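Sequence, please.
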């Protein structure tokens, strides 16, 4: 009897185990799976706080959805996405995107999922929504936007009784006074090429307005027209005067940051994504502020013309159609106050998210004045001409180069790929 009793108990326990395993299997099988490609690891790095909060919070609120997130870094994310889109296979459901024409190329190739109906009423800035829109269709969301502005060491300006420049002429006068006191006026990070672009975009705009680039990109104008040449000549002249230090091509982006952190340089024109680190007391003891890029007396561009693009955005691919409900839930949570409040430095597109620092508040105030936004050229132009663009711009900092010839050579490359200007 004792043997039978033990056998009965064993069989009963075995049945319970089988039932539990079965229930777990059914539960796992019933979960919707989302594959998401991003740039940053969801770790404890303050710069990755939003991504970590997004994934942790979404999983907690959506236990019926399994998220497989792959952190690819930069340029790993861009490269892997390009390959997958070209091959039209092994696509994720969602990928981190900066929007613009590169996203548009994927949309034209029918690699993306139209979510206009589902996303059009999500609260957010008009500029951010427009960035994730192509030919009238919305393909994703942009919780954070970035604009280029003038970072300025306020301690240095106070020490030498300098005022924040509001015109290009005033900025040149400030630079001359800084050099006279042994302070490097600007840092660029030209060794990494892309940092040269932000200031050049503003200079081209100030000479020729937003239309100068828009016409050249649409092939209604040329990249060696007067605004581009004048802006390049001014950039080169500043380099000759020493505004960017003795060896600007030897400084990478990180070197430029270090010069700002230590007060060895007074100004930098770059994106608002630097707000978190430039206001981090563990990285710098300098008081740095964020200001609008100055206007140009007699120029066409306005002070309310801004250069920028989504800082963090997400777009859905065609394979997301099978899991549309889960994808939309992810997009909406990405634009939630809860998730966005974890970000320590970027300009948020979502209303109701408090600025995490004085510097981000300053950048947000500058962004609020924007009447026209021009996307980063090396993201907005077709891929065939973006790397040569940054190669060309880097050479502006070489004192003996013929910048007009450089721009004409670039225009010829654009003509080969995009057609002649009409």
């Amino acid at each position: 009897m004792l043997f039978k009793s033990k056998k009965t108990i064993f069989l009963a326990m075995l049945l319970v185990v089988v039932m539990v395993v079965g229930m777990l299997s059914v539960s796992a099988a019933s979960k919707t799976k989302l594959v998401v490609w991003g740039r940053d690891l969801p770790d404890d790095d303050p710069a990755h706080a939003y991504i970590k909060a997004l994934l942790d919070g979404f999983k907690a609120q959506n236990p019926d959805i399994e998220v497989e997130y792959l952190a690819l870094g930069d340029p790993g994310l861009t490269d892997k996405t390009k390959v997958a889109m070209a091959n039209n296979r092994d696509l994720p459901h969602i990928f981190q995107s900066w929007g613009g024409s590169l996203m548009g190329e994927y949309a034209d190739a029918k690699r993306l999922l139209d979510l206009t109906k589902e996303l059009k009423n999500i609260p957010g800035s008009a500029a951010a929504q427009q960035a994730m829109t192509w030919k009238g269709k919305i393909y994703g969301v942009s919780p954070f936007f970035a604009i280029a502005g003038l970072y300025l060491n306020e301690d240095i300006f106070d020490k030498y009784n300098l005022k924040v420049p509001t015109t290009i002429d005033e900025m040149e006068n400030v630079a001359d006074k800084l050099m006279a006191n042994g302070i490097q006026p600007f840092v660029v990070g030209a060794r990494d090429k892309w940092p040269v672009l932000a200031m050049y975009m503003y200079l081209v705009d100030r000479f020729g307005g937003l239309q100068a680039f828009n016409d050249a990109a649409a092939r209604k104008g040329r990249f060696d027209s007067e605004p581009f040449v004048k802006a390049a000549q001014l950039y080169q002249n500043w380099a000759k005067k020493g505004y960017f230090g003795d060896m600007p091509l030897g400084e990478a982006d990180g070197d430029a940051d270090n010069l700002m952190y230590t007060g060895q340089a007074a100004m930098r024109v770059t994106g608002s994504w630097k707000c978190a680190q430039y206001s981090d007391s563990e990285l710098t003891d300098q008081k740095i502020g964020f200001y609008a890029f100055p206007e140009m007396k007699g120029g066409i561009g306005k002070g309310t013309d801004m250069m920028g693009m989504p800082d963090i955005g997400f777009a859905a691919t065609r394979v997301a159609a099978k899991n549309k409900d889960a994808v939309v839930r992810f997009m909406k949570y990405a634009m939630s106050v809860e998730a966005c409040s974890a970000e320590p430095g970027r300009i948020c597109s979502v209303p109701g998210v408090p600025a995490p620092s004085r510097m981000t508040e300053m950048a947000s105030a500058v962004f609020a004045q924007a009447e026209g936004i021009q996307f980063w050229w090396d993201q907005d132009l077709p891929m065939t001409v973006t790397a040569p663009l940054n190669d060309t711009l880097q050479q502006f900092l070489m004192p003996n180069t013929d910048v007009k010839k450089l721009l004409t050579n670039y225009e010829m490359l654009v003509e080969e790929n995009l057609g002649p200007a009409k």
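The radius of gyration is 25 Å.
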